Amino acid sequence: MAQEAGPAITGKQIKRAEAFTLESFVHSGEQTEVALAPGSPRYCALQSALKELDQGAQLPSIKWRHDWSFLLGLERVLSQQEPHLADGTTLNPHQVDALSGTLTALLAARIEIAEIEITEPIFDTNGSLAQEINTDDQQVAAELAALDQEHASDQDSPDDQQIDQAEVNEISAGTDQEVSPDAFDDPNAGKRFWFEHATGSGKTVAAMGFVEAQRTGGILILTHRRNLVDQFNDELRTRGYADRICGPLLDDQGADLLGPVTVETYQWFVRNAGKISNAYTIVICDEAHTALGEKTSSAIRQWTGPIFIGMTATGALIARHVTDLFPTQTSRFDLAQAARQGVISPLRCLRIPPGPGVRTIAKVPLRKGAVDLEFDQEMLAELLDHTPFNMAIADLYKAHFSGLPGVIYTAGVQHAKHVAQAFRSLGIKAEAVSGETPKRQLAETLASYEAGQIDVLVNAQLLAEGWNSPRATVCMHLAPTASKRIYQQRVGRVTRRHSGKEAGVVVDFVHPATSHDDPVVTLHSLLDRDLYRGGAVVIGPIPRGRGRQVKVERRVLPIAAEQDRRQQVFERQLWRIGVENLNHSDQQAWAALAGIRVTPSGWQRARAMLQFDISNQLKCHFLLTVMKDNHHPQLQIRALQELAVLKDPDGFDQAVKMIEDWPKDQRQQAAKVCLQALAEKRIGDRGQAISWIWQLAFYTSQVHEQYAFQRWPKTKRLLGMLVNSSNGAHARNARQLVQSISGQDRRLQIAVLACARAHTPQAEQVLSSARQRLARKPNACARQLLNNFPKTKSRPRKRRRRPRHKDPSSNPKPLSANGTGSSNKLQSTRSEAYN
């Protein structure tokens, strides 16, 4: 609803309101009449502030802070040419996007509220639930109060740790119990926003941007682990907000404080739901996916006073999406974007075969009723936790990553201890940590790792979330996972940039050709990459110059699950494919494409890529494809020669049939190659060899006919009678032909029978019997046919001309100054040299 213009606002009033609210109503470069146009949010905020001043208020009221403080603060921060924090840290573009996206959503919500004329908050000024709360909400509040009585203190006792882990497991599962229909009655959904930023891209700094934007209202930061509370407090002190750090505010506390910032856990929030002070105008939910549990999400929905801002790196990788609780996404900066823009470290990947046989391991829900599945950890530990395997992993790390700091994820606490012991036995500074590690010892171990006194941290899942170490370089998934969310959290430990760190290295224990449809999550399946190249950068700019910490393989492999995408990789990277690592169907597809595309200059390269094929099946497929579909006659003949060397009967049979359709000269050359092979070696059985020999003889009948006509002129008449006869006469002429040549030498008999053609079954039987008799020794018959081919004239060898030996005295004298020399003296010098 548009607001009518009131009295003109003076500069004195603006300065008075700015001193009262600690916010700017007119920014640099703006015109007052435009910035404070009647009905605009800033105009309404100014009028409300002046009204409170006229009433004698010393500080902005809680209601004013809820309504206007955060909105004005975001406008103030974003009006700067380079938005920055109190310590001067400049916000990156994606961090600015998170702030601007929230501002846009707030303005849209403000317009919507104005249109439906909602003016009264659901919460009263004490922060407690309003009297209009329904009966179901009262029941939930009673349950939360009972939970609060059960856990009266917030000390980090073992019981608290178990509660924390149960809540995290519940949240990780994405669902826990059936949600009541009342849960969908969510009037405060329009005040809950979230943004997704990749791990290592500065979500904490973005959170400090919201702290900078909120100068008068309180800020409550919620996280899921106690150690993260300390990290946030340290960040607040580092960024210049130490004076705003405040303990938890309950009931009506905090009304006299300007901009208090409190960092607490979700467990504290659940236990104190309904009693938290309404002085908090913003609630920042770190790792927002961990707020999706029934108890935490219920408590968030119940508190309708503040604005909730969730931030996560894995919002879209869980079964129950973050948008179930935080409907509006304000910014997205995923792992791929962060790496491409250089915000996080590039990621390289190595696959170490063979991977564990996880197909026999059951996949169970992360929690009862969950959709998100994970491998059974006990079964996985039973499969992996063996001393020889642990020692092999330690030796692998020492060989490939010696001196590089890394973090290894295992299947269970005991497995982590055994792996750490194996590393230490090889002289690698390694320690195992877990939830059982005393907190002081854990803090000391992590500090030693950061100081360089420890190089490898081994854990099950403790360091997958909430632990930040820019020094970490190698992430080794010794225990595979079926959860993309867990996998991305692990990888996030090596994405932070650090001096001397060229790239983060991710090690997956799977076969190199593992595709995306495999149950084990890999870096390539997480990022949906269609090819694998060992050691190469998977995501991010490729670092230039020296300093690469792993060897990059030359070969690539298609790993997409879709066949068309795999075919596209073959098209692009045909001569870089690691054929030996492909499955059978992909090897056949590669051989077919390579046979079509190979050129004379690339022949040796193609043959070298097939050297691994001991059975020769793939080589045969490649060579047959060259003969059938390649357009280079020279390569077709060469492929036939190499196919004959393989002595594969089926392949040779197909080759003999193919050459029938070749051009005459090429067919004659190919037949000669095949006959030569049959004469020199045994291919197939005797019957096959005889069939091939006479088939090849028919292909080159003109050659044998020419020889027969020259040797025995009667051949022409006999063959003419056979061709021009039919029915019974045709069979008689066939018998006469066989009887006539019986007195001739073997070579002539074979040549004549190679030219003879029968038109009836009776004649064919006569000729076939004669051919079988002459080809009892196939290799000898093949040699006789080879003798009929004209001899190829070898190109005469060019004699090199030996240079004449000249005596130094035979050198002609230089020309005279006028360009002429004495011809008599020159001739005399030459004569002397020859003599």
Descriptive account of the structure:
The chain has 835 residues and is α/β, with parallel strands linked by helices. It has 3 domains: 135-333, Rossmann fold (3-Layer(aba) Sandwich), CATH 3.40.50; 347-551, 3-Layer(aba) Sandwich (Rossmann fold); 584-786, no CATH class. Mean pLDDT is 83; it is low at 114-183 and 812-835.
Summary tags:
7-stranded mixed beta sheet, Rossmann fold, 9% strand, 835 residues, single chain, disordered C terminus, 46% helix, alpha/beta
Q: How does the SSE layout of this entry go?
A:
Elements: H1 11-21, H2 32-35, H3 41-54, H4 62-78, H5 93-116, H6 135-150, H7 158-173, E1 192-197, H8 203-213, E2 218-223, H9 226-238, E3 261-265, H10 266-271, E4 280-286, H11 294-302, E5 307-312, E6 328-333, H12 335-340, E7 347-351, E8 363-365, E9 373-375, H13 377-384, H14 387-401, E10 406-409, H15 413-425, E11 430-432, H16 439-451, E12 456-459, E13 474-477, H17 484-491, E14 504-508, H18 523-527, E15 531-532, E16 537-539, E17 557-558, H19 563-572, H20 584-597, H21 603-608, H22 617-629, H23 633-646, H24 649-658, H25 664-680, H26 686-699, H27 701-711, H28 714-723, H29 727-741, H30 746-755, H31 761-774, H32 778-786, H33 823-834
Parallel strand pairs: 1-5, 1-6, 2-3, 2-4, 4-5, 7-14, 10-12, 10-13, 11-12, 13-14
Antiparallel strand pairs: 7-16, 8-9, 15-17
